[in-house]
Design goal:
Length: about 190
């Protein structure tokens, strides 16, 4: 059972190394805010191309998380701290289904959408999504297959919105949003 063995190795390592666990926990707990703030900052302060990437990232995350919600309800997989009472739960978490990981789904949807549009911002986002996923496993709230499924789902959502007909609509939406007076005034003030 490779999934459990990988979980156990990461979880035991985090539990035994406070210097690793504490910063990882801080990042994992702040990750949602960081990813959302990153998209907003890219949209408000980015070039038109980056603005399109930010809108595609947000829409990809929304699509992927919507699918993940129904998939989690259909699969109903327990989290490792429920199945294995000896697992180290290193952060508070609800006993809801863990497959696929919502955090990994959203983070990878954002990262892959950014990679498709601009690799300079997408590759660091992928690294942050990977760190988030490793952290969720190490802290005891997911199996590796939970975060892997989230990554695949995030990639699929980003690729769906990369289909030319949908990409054109996303680009038009981003361009229209970028022309809103509130956005143009913020951009002028920051220049």
């Amino acid at each position: 059972m490779l999934d459990y063995d990988l979980f156990r190795s990461a979880n035991d390592f985090a539990a035994a190394h406070d210097g690793f666990e504490d910063p990882l926990k801080a990042y994992v707990q702040a990750s949602e805010i960081l990813f959302v703030a990153g998209i907003v900052a890219l949209f408000v302060f980015g070039t038109p191309l980056v603005r399109r990437a930010a809108v595609a990232a947000g829409l990809s995350a929304g699509l992927a998380l919507g699918v993940a919600h129904f998939l989690a309800a259909a699969v109903g997989r327990n989290r490792p701290f429920i199945d294995h009472p000896h697992a180290h739960l290193l952060m508070a978490h609800a006993n809801d289904p863990g497959f696929p990981s919502d955090h990994a789904t959203g983070a990878f949807a954002i990262a892959f959408a950014l990679v498709l549009r601009d690799r300079r911002i997408g590759i660091p986002a992928l690294a942050l999504a990977l760190l988030l996923s490793v952290g969720r496993v190490a802290l005891g709230v997911h199996y590796p297959s939970d975060v892997f499924a989230g990554a695949v789902l995030g990639l699929a959502a980003a690729l769906v919105l990369w289909i030319p007909a949908l990409r054109e609509r996303v680009d038009r939406l981003a361009d229209a949003l970028g022309r809103l007076p509130v956005i143009t005034s913020v951009v002028r003030r920051s220049s």
